[in-house]
Specification:
This protein is of the alpha+beta class. It is built from eleven helices and eleven strands. The protein is globular and about 55 Å long.
Length: 345
């Protein structure tokens, strides 16, 4: 269902715990989303779990719901190169039978919110896992399939940058993806030009127990003892992990790791307790995160029918050299109408 992200955010905002998204921040986000094109299938807010109060915004477009064509009908940021690049990507993405249409089920747009009321530039994260929305998990990925995936990634990056990746960055990115274990796969690949960086972020998923060996294979320069402690304390009951790496002419030492469980899952409480112990999460934010619902019915005064908000939750942990562990929560939301039954009064 194609949505106006500001209307959906207004519905979800009534559910946001104030400890994570204070009322003033909620209102600022709603004002900001009013300038975004009504092309989303859902969104999320990114909340820091430590003392930093900043909250950023994400929205996503689904190919199967006509997201790329909706974006072409309702362009935004005509003078912004980043928005122009998103439009170019959507033009190629919407072409019947194209490799992008075959391989890219979702496009995420992330907005770094820094207090301005102007429409911010998007950071686009195309998903390059064609099986992401399948009912059953995909099997191992062979080298031929991975080679096709890499071609799709190069095409997507070229469209989003307006030029090909630099030769050294492309070579290093290719190496990172080719050395994934067969049970691993690239999920998202995003050029970071919007943030002023000549780099690409590679987000992959792989078994937790395969992560240390994979990082060795790509010569990750980060601190292994710190990583091993983190995996032992926070991932003991998690089968797979999403791994974020920034790639230039080398693999950078910053590492992001994602944890996803359903809202209300019993595994969240020990994870958040450990993050509080490590000083990466404030206790009041941990308590608030545990209350984020998987589903809620919300009615606003000017709406004819109530809406059902479906919620998701994830945590991203960021390891940076010589810095404390950073934890961020992602509160995801999408809207479904609650239509009355026939014959009901």
């Amino acid at each position: 269902m194609i949505l106006a992200i500001d209307d959906t955010l207004k519905l979800a905002a009534s559910l946001f715990p104030p400890a994570l998204v204070p009322p003033d921040t909620q209102r600022a986000l709603v004002r900001l989303t009013g300038a975004l094109p009504p092309v989303a299938s859902g969104g999320a807010v990114e909340c820091r779990l430590g003392k930093d109060p900043r909250v950023d915004l994400l929205m996503y477009l689904l190919a199967k719901e006509g997201g790329p064509r909706a974006m072409l009908r309702r362009p935004a940021g005509e003078n912004d190169p980043a928005w122009q690049a998103v439009r170019s990507f959507c033009e190629a993405w919407s072409c019947e039978g194209s490799s992008l249409q075959t391989w890219v089920p979702v496009l995420w747009l992330e907005f770094d919110v820094e207090g301005e009321d102007a429409l911010p530039s998007p950071l686009p994260f195309p998903c390059v896992d064609r099986h992401l929305l399948d009912a059953l998990p995909p099997g191992p990925q062979d080298s031929a399939t991975r080679a096709v995936c890499l071609q799709v990634i190069r095409e997507a990056a070229t469209l989003l940058l307006g030029r090909p990746l630099s030769a050294v960055t492309e070579r290093e990115m290719t190496r990172c993806i080719e050395r994934l274990p067969s049970e691993g796969r690239a999920l998202h690949v995003a050029p970071l030009a919007t943030r002023g960086l000549d780099a690409v972020r590679v987000v992959s998923t792989l078994p937790v127990d395969a992560l240390p060996g994979y990082l060795d294979a790509i010569a990750w320069p980060g601190a292994r003892p710190r990583l091993e402690d983190l995996l032992a304390s926070l991932f003991p009951r998690t089968g797979h992990v999403s791994c974020h790496l920034d790639v230039t002419a080398r693999v950078e030492p910053v590492l992001g790791l994602e944890i996803y469980h359903a809202p209300g899952d019993s595994r969240w409480e020990p994870v958040l307790g450990e993050l509080c112990t490590q000083g990466a999460c404030l206790p009041e934010k941990a308590e608030a995160l545990l209350r984020w619902p998987a589903e809620a019915v919300v009615a606003l005064p000017h709406h004819r029918w109530p809406s059902r908000i479906l919620g998701t939750v994830g945590i991203k942990l960021v390891l940076r050299p010589d810095e404390p562990l950073l934890a961020k929560a992602y509160l995801g939301f999408t809207e479904r109408l609650c239509m009355p039954r026939r014959g009901s009064s």
